[in-house]
């Protein structure tokens, strides 16, 4: 074989099918219910919980949130802005909206239509 000759290997249908399966599996929305209190002491567990959903489509249910601090909002912001995750909200609580609004994070967290 000379330098200019190339071997083009065809993509097998198995390779294409497996990528379709991976995409269809990842297109399902995963639901995460946020705890009533999300403050500094709970953040390590919360971070680990969020980490398992990287590469997924996630719906955050914030209806139970009664107390959330700046550190938890920052963690949510980092998660939401991660390029390998898609996030939507289900029923964010008034307390969650109020805390995000106080820090000017509503639009950054995707809570623009929040009732703050």
UniProtKB/TrEMBL annotation:
Regions that span the bilayer: none
Name this protein carries in UniProt: STAS domain-containing protein
Pfam families xrefs: STAS_2 (PF13466)
Residue segments, region Disordered: 1-28
Record-linked InterPro entries: MlaB-like_STAS, STAS_dom_sf
Comp. bias regions, Basic and acidic residues: 19-28
Source organism superkingdom: Bacteria
Domain MlaB-like STAS: 32-105
